[in-house]
Amino acid sequence: MTLAEKLYLPAIFKGMGITFSHLFKKKPTINYPEEKRPFSAVFRGLHILNRDEEGRERCTACGLCAVACPAEAITMEAAERQTGEEALYREEKYAAKYEINMLRCIFCGLCEEACPKDAIYLTQTFAPANYGRKGFIYKKDDLLIPNPVTDPEGYEKAKGTSGKGVN
Ligand code: SF4
Ligand code: SF4
Question: How far, in Å, is the centroid of ligand 1 from the Cα of 70?
Answer without folding.
Answer: 7
